[in-house]
Amino acid sequence: xxxxxxxxxxxxxxxxxxxxxxxxxxxxxxxxxxxxxxxxxxxxxxxxxxxxxxxxxxxxxxxxxxxxxxxxxxxxxxxxxxxxxxxxxxxxxxxxxxxxxxxxxxxxxxxxxxxxxxxxxxxxxxxxxxxxxxxxxxxxxxxxxxxxxxxxxxxxxxxxxxxxxxxxxxxxxxxxxxxxxxxxxxxxxxxxxxxxxxxxxxxxxxxxxxxxxxxxxxxxxxxxxxxxxxxxxxxxxxxxxxxxxxxxxxxxxxxxxxxxxxxxxxxxxxxxxxxxxxxxxxxxxxxxxxxxxxxxxxxxxxxxxxxxxxxxxxxxxxxxxxxxxxxx
Length: 328
What we know:
This protein has helices at residues 6-30, 47-63, 78-86, 99-108, 144-153, 168-180, 192-201, 211-219, 267-280, 284-293, 302-323, and strands spanning 36-40, 67-71, 93-98, 120-136, 159-162, 185-188, 206-210, 223-228, 254-262. By secondary structure, the chain is of the alpha/beta class. Helix 4 packs across helix 11. It is 45% helix and 19% strand. GO terms for molecular function: lyase activity. Belongs to the UPF0065 (bug) family.
């Protein structure tokens, strides 16, 4: 027995659908109504973590809800990025994605458990910075050419540390070896702090890392810096030549990173986050830290960030292929 005529039933269904859509739209307009989690796929105290914490604080003030940093380091950023990709696309879990997790890993791992372009939604670029080449204080060389000369005289004897296989530091080291025709021993670490600790302690010869992670050790005189990987000098290390200036013409590795969300996060939430991030990057505390660490904080549209990722994947894929590096 049919209680409602078919047309009446269809009208009721349409009303419920419209009410549901209106409810969802209202929820997105009122977002956020509780704290937002920001997954950082690196350990606490790492370079990305140091730079992101004031950004998270400023972003929380812009959104009117706390933004809580959740450090999930491991496996070249894969652990945290996989967790982010699997999170509910409701805006309450966002994360940090960078050159490694969004570009390099695509070529380094044949079975990457997430797709940088399909599993995640770009929100805004946030930071970019150069890397620096440092050495233990008693290392026989004090500049890039000295390192190259020593490595050629002692093939396979110079140890080069990095923040894990497939990190930007690892590939920068592979590029250094490839372009100078030297053989050096790559030593991957679980964290930049461990690698720097071994540089300070004399157990590791050299390493490449971002400025934010090693600047305190350079300033305290615990390590010596040989060169920067950008084409222009790092402002806070203006007396340090670039690798390009040191004879490796065109050598450039600049790390970048931004805020991403799980794929499927509603566009109104993405847009609101994008506007809030742009304002957060102008916060006085953020500007002061970025100036101190020579970090460039430049926001972007979601589309511009997506375009950067799309262009960097093949670029670094070619570098991975050329270097012969692999995490499998």
